[in-house]
Amino acid sequence: MRTRSLVHPFIIGIASLWLGACAGQIKPDLSATAPRSEALLVLPGFGYGPRAEHVLKTLSAEMKNDGFDLYVPTYISRGGLEKSRTQLQRYLREQQLDRYDRVHVFAFIAGGWTLNSLVEAKQMPNLATVVYDRSPLQERAARIATDDLHLLTWIRYGSPVFDFARAPYVPLDEPHVNVGLVVETRPTSFMKRHKGAAHRYGAFEFDCDGFLQPHHDCAFLAMNHNDVYRRFADVWPEVRAFIRTGHFTSGANRMPPVGDPFYTSRSE
Description:
Elements: H1 2-17, E1 38-43, H2 50-65, E2 68-71, H3 81-94, E3 102-107, H4 109-120, E4 127-134, H5 141-148, H6 150-157, H7 160-166, E5 178-184, H8 189-193, H9 195-200, E6 217-221, H10 225-230, H11 232-245, H12 261-264
Helix pairs in contact: 3-4, 5-6, 5-7
């Protein structure tokens, strides 16, 4: 009973941190209408699950009205980060995203680590925009899972979590691509449970330049990582504005939070 009482919270923690269940791909039905000249590619990470898939599927009709075909691949592989890049490359080829005049990307955290090397290798010559989801809080989750929950993480996810924890972020620096950052400011329940471990890696840096990613605009979201998936309809107007103008809306919050995020954020 003692062993079970210790292991059970860890299993729940891992499940809430990463994929609660497998979610499927989303792609437009091009048999009904001609493809648009623009596509939006959403690159989910380890938080993508059925609820997020439902939100994006529901939102795809609005995106179509805005002129975008929505694509959401399932590309993260147990084989690791490099294998995930290979699978994303295959998806881009199979879905023929090169037929669009302009492709725009919203990259959740793991998506950015996967995407950037492909862009640098000229795999997406029609890439026009990337909006990255970043988080000083959630970007420590993989390190916590690697250092403190190693075996359970391996059983559930294989190599990619460990690769993500070890791999430095290689920034995208392409002059022809407009880059925006949206920064989560609130902790998930997983991070709250492991706030001591999160503090172990040093102070939290919310300043936009601290992400070492050249960008044209940066906005702060009063959301945690799960919120961004589940409330993407609230994020989409800012993403759409950035795609159209190269800037987020005038109502976007551009002031980084101050203080300890575990004590200054609202409870979930």
